[in-house]
From TrEMBL:
The keyword ATP-binding applies. This is ATP-binding cassette domain-containing protein. PROSITE patterns: ABC_TRANSPORTER_1, ABC_TRANSPORTER_2. GO terms for molecular function: ATP binding; ATP hydrolysis activity. Keywords: ATP-binding, Nucleotide-binding, Transport. Signal peptide: none annotated. It comes from Metabacillus mangrovi. InterPro entries: AAA+_ATPase, ABC_transporter-like_ATP-bd, ABC_transporter-like_CS, ABC_transporter_ATP-bind, P-loop_NTPase. Residues 4-235 form the ABC transporter domain.
Length: 256
């Protein structure tokens, strides 16, 4: 039994006069603990797919299950991290990272202690009483990750979570997120436009073709790269070779 199963998923957006098909016939399975990335030209439906997997959008056709359970029954098992941190500006960092636990009625002394320990593990010790405006962009994204992980989700959805950060901060946060997800054995789906990020963080990469979005190709990341941290993966000889192969495929998809 696959951990996550996406079967024959298609989705169309309807208006009074038009029908726009964003996804068509998406089928794939993901094993527990895998890190999967989706790459593709603008308009290929990557974010639509992630929104469907999150249970926030019902597909026009097809099914999504986690451990054979409908996604509608598993929404509390899913964590969603976006490009923006969406921290509440009027709450302290402690108040922000405990929000998910409060919402799901899981806040107790044990869960609060675990969440604050994770905050420290993220390099954010001593910021509990600060407000989001007092932190850098990278620190706010780390706090957002702690908030997402606090409820112990089984599936992490990452929608370009590093794209608004400067390059150095982005590389550091890639390493940190990769380590945390591995340490906690989380299954993750990443939507990104960054080929290098996808190679450095993933076990497999799916390329989506546009108009409508379909799976065009799958790349299995070599074990030699998967065993490295994202930063060190970028230095491996196979990284450059794979980058060029994916670049070529994406270029062809855009021309089509």
């Amino acid at each position: 039994m696959a951990f996550l199963s996406i079967q024959h998923v298609s989705h169309s957006y309807f208006t009074k006069d038009t029908i726009a098909t964003a996804l068509e016939g998406i089928s794939l399975t993901v094993e527990e603990g895998e890190f999967i990335s989706f790459l593709g030209p603008s308009g290929c439906g990557k974010t639509t797919l992630l929104t469907i997997v999150a249970g926030l959008l019902k597909p026009t056709e097809g099914t999504v299950t986690i451990k054979d359970e409908p996604i509608s029954e598993m929404r509390k098992k899913i964590g969603y991290m976006l490009q923006q941190d969406f921290l509440f500006p009027w709450k302290t960092i402690k108040g922000n990272v405990l929000t998910g636990l409060k919402t799901q009625d899981k806040l107790n002394p044990h869960s609060e202690k675990s969440t604050l320990s994770l905050l420290e593990e993220m390099g954010l010790a001593g910021v509990e009483n600060k407000y989001p405006r007092q932190l850098s962009g990278g620190m706010r994204q780390r706090a957002a990750l702690v908030r997402t992980l606090s409820t112990d989700p089984e599936l992490m959805l990452l929608d370009e979570p590093f794209s608004a950060l400067d390059y150095q901060t982005k590389l550091k946060l890639e390493d940190l997120v990769h380590k945390i997800l591995q340490d906690y054995n989380k299954t993750a789906l990443l939507v990104t436009h960054d080929i290098g990020e996808a190679i450095a963080m993933s076990d497999r990469i799916f390329l989506l073709s546009p108009n409508p979005g379909k799976i065009a190709k799958m790349f299995l990341i070599p074990r030699e790269i998967r065993e490295l941290s994202p930063f060190n993966a970028r230095q491996h000889a196979l990284y450059t070779e794979l980058f060029q192969a994916i670049w070529k495929e994406l270029d062809q998809l855009e021309q089509e």
